[in-house]
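User: Fold this; tokens only.

Assistant: Input:
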Amino acid sequence: MHHSLSLLLVIIGLQVSVQSTGRRSEYRSVLTVLNGMKWGSWGYLDLCPNETYAAGFSLKVDEPSYGFWDDNKGLTGIRLHCISLSNVLKGSFEDYTSVQSEAGSWGRWTDIKWCPCGFLTAFQLRVESSQLFGDDTAANNIMFRCTQEYLYGDGTLWGKWGDWSQMCRGTGICGIKTRIEEPQGSGDDTALNDVRMFCCD
């Protein structure tokens, strides 16, 4: 009886420990922009671990090509890199966790860009509108506002910058959900079309 009770307490303790260091299940607010394109569908929401927030990001980018029949995709994925407030205060970016939603299969990931101080708090998206019979690329780059400065992504140059999202209510961005168009076979591929960021206290 005592052995079973001890085993149960150990299991409960392990569950509490895993839960306390696991991924968040809640957020405070959602940041959106108005210039995202509508092709594809929304992927899953991925949130930073408890007590961490996004202080850096990297992009998956399809390298531009300029042949007449080339099918450019522009921006195909976004990763957020989450760290704790204590690491931000120490200026340490070694102990981080990466989160991302759906991403296209094309392109390569860029190097991480870190906020010099604080966390990501707002974003702006560079989007190419519909080209009708031309080559559509949809989302091409992203810029983030840190607590005090701005971080510009290493995306492509097609399209125009839209308006900034709202600012985070809470400490900073803690999650991401992307809208991705699936491969179109012989059709025109665009990959990433839109993104939503999630803020936590």
